[in-house]
Request: fold
Amino acid sequence: MEERIDVPEAEIAVHWQEEKYYYPPTKFITQANLTDEEVYERFSLDKFPECFNEYAGLLDWYKHWERTLDTADAPFWGWYVGGRINASYNCVDRHLAKNKNKTAIHFVPELESEATQHITYQELYVRVSEFAALLRDFCGLKAGDRATLHMPMVPELPIAMLACARLGVIHSQVFSGFSGRACADRIVDSGSRVLITMDGYYRNGAIQDQKEKADIAAEEAAKGGHSVEKVLIWQRYPGKYLSAKPAVHGRDHIVNDLLKGYRGRRAEPVPMPAEAPLFLMYTSGTTGKPKGCQHSTGGYLAYVAGTSKYIQDIHPEDVYWCMADIGWITGHSYIVYGPLALGASTVIYEGVPTYPDAGRPWRIAEELDVNIFHTSPTAIRALRRAGPDEPNNYDYHFKHMTTVGEPIEPEVWRWYHNVVGKGEAVIVDTWWQTENGGFLCSTVPALGPMKPGSAGPGVPGIHPVIYDEDGNEIPRGSGRAGNICIRNPWPGIFQTIWGDPDRFVAQYYARYCKDQNSKDWRDWPYFAGDGAVQAPDGYYRILGRIDDVINVAGHRLGTKEIESAALTVPEVAEAAVVPVADEIKGKVPDLYVALKPGFEPSPELHKRISDAVVTEISPIARPAHVWIVPDMPKTRSGKIMRRVLAAISSGQEAGDVSTLANPEVVDELRHMVAV
Ligand code: WTA
Reply:
């Protein structure tokens, strides 16, 4: 019976109604970058890996690569080996000759009373070069060093990223909403001696103090034996200091003041090996410790440039707005690196989509004449609830829209299509992960019809397969779900987990590898950790994580991380987190805790446990409920049955629980949660 309760979600058969197709409008097709039906043939497995030379060809190289794919150290793939390239040069300098006066970044501050800033490629070049010179000469940073960034959604964030990339410094941007402690863990793990932050920024109409988190981060890192030598603080409004915390003498430096000494200074881009790491992006996995996904320079940039061109359909004259946060992989790939590599104009919006009202995104779209829009189902659901008819009030026209990060309900998809897109825009539902660099599944917008709720087939060059628990392929159209994997490597795939290569192999490649000594990529399918089903037409529907990851409003959090945070409260003996469905956020965490003997539940304790999660991680991880329970449902071997807790939280049947060590607790908890 224990086994039945433990059946992996991905094996549970799923049946859902097939949705009807929507076809891309002719107006879109006639202008699209990719209309060639042969593309799937060109990127077939027979043409692998050389097919991906086409993506690398979109970039400028100092030295051409010698081998497209090196598998000698499988599954640590080497892409474009022997090549030399600089990401900052490709996103900035190479556009100057023809487009120096063009807007690279439109920055929209959250306050509507504040003017939008339009930063040209020339200005971006000057600001990136000066800041790179500062990082090199004032901080002593050089190729291979790491720098942690904890920046909000402001142009100084891509400027800092591109300045690092210019020197070959590996940047590690931590989502600004993460707490100082969460930032500290990432500083220590990456070994960063420099932290780049901002004094404050606007969110929901109020200034957030960001610099106070830097103090906590530096203190916590010091407790772990790691010294943050320099904290560079940008000012949101140069000359005005927004933080309540003073600059720490000798450690903290105001960037705007320092930059005065770097006027006119230029740091030349350093030609980096294609395989040099470009950045780390920490993400949640099955253990409490976040892992630093290490992305390469040449392979990553080629992949995001290729997919930005063909899947996002970015043309030089487009105004492209991705409303994600640059602190997540979507922002790295599809706000910064992809669009800028193609010389597009990319929009950065500081604040929340519904501030001050649900018309805000559509006013921004109208003002800037945005024609490509990119967001998450959570944002779409929130905008739909707050202002279902708002888009009709504004005169903007999207040719292309993206949804990313979570499964989208067909009904929500249709609102996005009919109302936001005014029936004129093509939609791509893009499935991928922090580890992947860029899209894995999506329709090619001018080629495949759209199907609400389905991501579509693998994008050109990506060959997915669904395996059952025993490694048998689950055929398309069987109605059975399984573990989605990718048969082949691709240039955007991460290189390793920073400092933990064994975990990299164990978690992503060992599951279905038949020969761990093999140097043949065919033996190393990439295990994504998502359940999926493939419809008869070949489209994939992604069902969600099969591991201990919970996707809250598109933010990826580890249940173990939230549990560890709860355990920092001295009274807490045990903690278990389960996902519960939420109308807007997709999923929210419910936290169950059992107290150590002698302690009693109280409202004060509830609050302290909930606050601990915010302090350790972020407000985005705050539990929907904290249930202080007399006991956890457990197997006879003492394992907490999270699946039973999830059923209780969702008001569903828990199945046969008679084999639990303490079946009586189930009714008790059910009663507690129901009232
Ligand atoms: C989920 C975000 C359904 C999935 C780019 C994946 C999706 C996790 C989709 C990665 C989609 C992402 N449809 N589910 N279109 N896109 N996911 O690392 O569970 O923040 O494993 O990367 O989000 O989240 P991450």
Remarks:
- DSSP finds 21 helices and 30 strands in the chain.
- The mean pLDDT is 95.
- The longest helix spans residues 121-137.
